Amino acid sequence: MISLSQVCKRYPGGYDALKNISFTMQPGEVVAVTGHSGAGKSTLLKLIAAIERPTRGSIIVNGQNTSSLRPAAVPYLRRNFGLVFQDHKLLFERTVFENVLLPLQITGFERKESAKRVRAALDKVGLLDKEKMFPITLSGGEQQRLCIARAIVNRPAILLADEPTGNLDTAYASDIMQLFKSFNQVGVTVIIASHDEAMLMRLNPRLLKLNRGELAP
Amino acid sequence: MKNWLSQHAQTLWLALKRLRQNPFASLLNISVIGIALSLPGGLYVLLNNLESLSRQVSGEPQISLFLSMQAASAEVSQIHARLKSHPGVRNFQFVPRDQALRELQKAAGIADVVQSLTQNPLPDAFIIHAKDSSADALQRLRDEFRSWPNTAHVQLDSLWAQRLEALLRLGKIVILLLAILLSFALVAVTFNTIRLQILTHREEIEVAKLIGATHRFIRRPFLYIGALQGLAGGVVAWAVVAVSIQVLNIGIADLTRLYTTNFQLNQPNTSDSVSLMLFSAWLGWLGAWMSVSRHLHQIEPR
Predict the structure, then answer these.
(1) Which of A75, A102, A103 sits opposite B214 (nearest CB)?
(2) Cβ partners under 8 Å of residue B159, min gap 6
(3) pTM beyond cutoff 0.90
(4) For strand A158-162 and strand A189-193, is the pairing parallel, antiparallel, or unpaired?
């Protein structure tokens, strides 16, 4: 489903973020990408979601090579993913409900069905009673859960999470991990990047350790 | 189809919301657009009024064909036949010289002068109405009649109306130039507004792109904002013209009373009004489209 072969990413200025990465993921797998900060975890996730293009090598997602993708095809590739960000990337002038609605509006989902799906997603992350509130009034953990609700509302086959528990305390963080576990149980492929290896181990993941841009054995 | 409509309805709603978010800026933009368009729009309406006035006053253009004094009745009937079979002539009227003299005698003040004449100085004449009453066609007919034998003089009676027409044409060119210039200004205004809108919604655009929004989806609300602003500007322009004409008519009423004539400026007709508004909306859309094409691809998520 996702396969990288000999992927290198060099940023302008000559900094090598990733060197010669190869691995293949099967549907339904949980992969944890770990490593110190600056090891290339975020870059790896960005390459998979076609936010960045590899300098060398190829990345195949659902049979599509992301580096040879036309710009107009990129949005459709991204719809395969649910993206969870460390900084949430919520829209603060929209309500909780409208934030989760956005992916469905983008795909042109029918309106009544959309509302149902949004409420189901909010229910899943425990924010159903806050749908009319604005994200600014939510706590950090709630904002992260809102971000997750937005990522899953389209029922994507793959969840990509970059440091989803980065600035949360342990109780909140284990809540979030529990959520990811439940998604995986219904067949969603999960890729989580985090420096917190102990937290990741709760998911029984396949571990990908990055060290200065290289895959550790 | 229903889904597609509902998507556009949602975008329309979003565009209205964004215009309302900065009511002062939106109103200023709309006023600028409206005032800029009301200038060529108003001049156009005035010119249209002048045109219909000139048509009213000049009536139907006609050609007077005067025969030479020596023309015998056989030659007159020859010209009669020629006119009858001429494809460019709609109808004509023969005015014999005796009748012309009688009519002249009826005119006040010169009866004495006419009576003192020893012979009739007037020639036989034809008054001709052409099928095609455009200036070109009339001139061609006049030149043709001049070359016929036994014609002393051929005159276009509506020469002054043609001059006015030419003057109005010139006015139309001036309006066109003005409209082109101001349209450009309008596009520029919208371009800039949309640029600011894009910058304010930068974050939203980034997130939407991350979630898999197509260019078309991201572009749509901005195009709507441009078109709506243009449409509102068009309505303002129309209102400025309508009110101005109303005010002018009050002044004209005083003037025409003094001249004991009856003349009122007409308001722009429905199709012109609708055209003005749609044209303005289109210009707004165009400005937004240019701005979006220029600025949207600069925003890429990192």
Answers:
(1) A75
(2) none
(3) no
(4) parallel
